[in-house]
Amino acid sequence: MIRSMTGFARREQQGEWGTLVCELRTVNHRFLEVSLRLPEDLRSLDTELRQLLAGGLRRGKVDASIYLKSTTAAVQLNEINHGLLNALQRRIAEVRTTRMRL
Q1: Number of domains in the chain
Q2: pTM
């Protein structure tokens, strides 16, 4: 259990999708008050993150921010590779034909 109510933490995790940055700021407060700033893609985690923080803290004002800095490679992952798509479609057609013969 964390005892201090005043603090700051920042962590970064890099991957092929970009860099994920998490920052926590806490100050003394009579009750537990959590404020989350999340990217749109992670908003579905809001409730789970609040429960996780409440499990480790009893009181204090907590500001948590998560940022995702995309890399150029991450943008390219979202582009359609038409050659690969055509090859997959041909392979699916082959599998269907083979199944029909069985």
Answers
A1: 1
A2: 0.58
